[in-house]
Amino acid sequence: MGKVLIIGAGGVGTVVVHKVAQNADVFTDIVLASRTKSKCDVIAADVKKRYGVDIKTEQVDADNVADLVALFKKHQPKLVINVALPYQDLTIMDACLEAGCNYLDTANYEPKDVAHFEYSWQWAYQDRFKQAGLTAILGCGFDPGQTGVYTAYAAKHHFDTIEYLDIVDCNAGDHHHAFATNFNPEINIREITQNGRYYENGQWVATGPLEIHKALNYPEIGPKESYLLYHEELESLVKNFPTIKRARFWMTFGQEYLTHLRVIQNIGMARIDEVEYNGVKIVPLQFLKAVLPNPQDLGENYSGWTSIGCRIRGKKDGKDKTYYIYNNCSHEAAYKETGMQGVSYTTGVPAMTGAYMFMTGKWSGAGVFNVEEFDPDPFMKKVAESGLPWHEIVDGDLEL
Ligand code: NDP
Question: Atom 20 of ligand 1 has which residue's CA nearest to it?
Answer without folding.
Answer: 35
